[in-house]
Design brief:
It comes from Prunella fulvescens. GO terms for molecular function: cardiolipin binding; phosphatidic acid binding; phosphatidylinositol phosphate binding; phosphatidylserine binding. This is PKHN1 protein. One of its GO terms (biological process) is 3'-UTR-mediated mRNA destabilization. This protein has a domain at about 35-135: Pleckstrin-homology domain (PH domain)/Phosphotyrosine-binding domain (PTB) (PH-domain like, Roll). A hairpin with a 2-residue loop joins strand 6 and strand 7 (about 110-115). It has helices at about 1-15, 25-30, 120-135, 145; strands at about 35-45, 50-60, 60-70, 75-80, 85-90, 100-105, 110-115. The protein is built from four helices and seven strands. It has a seven-stranded antiparallel sheet with strand order 4-3-2-1-7-6-5. It is an alpha+beta fold. The radius of gyration is 16 Å and the shape is globular. Helix content is about 30%, strand content about 35%. The longest helix has 17 residues, at about 120-135.
Amino acid sequence: FIQKQENQKENLEQRLPSLLKKGRRKTVTRHLGKIIYYSKVKFKFQHCQEVSSCFLELFQSYLYFQSTDPNGLTYQGLLPLKELEVHELGAGQSPGQQDHAFHISGPLLNPLVVFCPSEAELRQWLYHLEKQIQLCGGSLALPLLSQ
């Protein structure tokens, strides 16, 4: 039973950023705070056609993504929430893709489009991102709030 718990713990830690595994993983993840929300989504850079599967993890002050494309190239990024702008893409704004999508941009960021598997998942991401961006002192570009 204890062995099983250890395996589950290791599996959870393996999901965490390889970029940030400089010391002991437990120490590193503690620096980022607790994970608020995470899921597997699809994403693409705004000006590219190629869509990749991606793990997206929301910490208290950062959004982390890690993805591997079919050629084995890994994209990863740790984005400070305070500098991010997030808004939902309406139906038809992401041609050829599902409708449950949102756009992330920031000062030093090639804009990302994130595709969620369902409307419910999209609502979860927008809710948590909006809340954490506000808590970090960032400004919101969500059209839901400006109307």
